[in-house]
Design goal:
Blueprint lengths: L1 E4 L6 E4 L5 E3 L6 E5 L2 E7 L6 H12 L8 H4 L1 E19 L2 E8 L19 E2 L10 E2 L7 H4 L5 E19 L2 E8 L5 E2 L9 H23 L1 H25 L1
Parallel strand pairs: 5-10, 6-9
Antiparallel strand pairs: 1-2, 3-4, 4-5, 5-8, 6-7, 6-10, 10-11, 11-12
Helix pairs in contact: 4-5
Length: about 250
Amino acid sequence: MASMKCPKCAAPVEFDAGDRFVKCSYCSSQIFIDKAGAGFIYALPFSVTENDAVGIFRRWAAGPTRAKDLDKLAQISSLKKQYFPVYMFKRDVNGMEHVYIEPAASTTLPGLHNLKVPGGDLKIFDDRFDTGGAELVKIDIEMAPYLSSLPGTAKEQALVYFPIWRLDYAFEQRAYVAVISASSGEVFSGDFPKRSSGAYMAVAGLGFLAFLAEGLLAIASPVLAGALMAVTVAGVFGASNYVARRM
């Protein structure tokens, strides 16, 4: 058996070499055991419900850079409620406190390397914390490798379970994944169906050629060239509006 001091009450806590979690018998704190040391386990409660997550995704899918009608035609195949583990490092850097977040689990999901943990919402993760049936993603990355690359001196290190909704969807027979932060409602998506820029480029190219020709015409007939330019402006505006609405 190994032993250490509880980070909260300093009471001696014994644990086996293979343990990842242990409870202090004096203050009942749940403690995370890592090769780099011990720290508290926190969790953020879900503030985005399942219905809210779907609505957030639909609004994101309607954005100007997303494929036309993605918000209507995307077929959601699954929506998983998960707690993704991250390490939170509080460091003193030149007299100022900085917080660094690093993943504690291997993942290819977008955005999980850029999560931001709002400190005021952190809850102690113990037997009384209600996960609401969310899946706890397995920890498979040790804390120790991160420590050598962090600046300053350590103030606190902890494991934080971050709430996410993993949304799998299909569009035009291709599968995509989006991650929705169940804390802030932010959407992360590495790959998504994009709106084609070909039609916009065509309108811009034709407009440029028309203005070029009208500029040359203006040398011989300024009045006629001015009238044609007015028609071209209206045409480019109308074509751009059509492309924005239909393509």
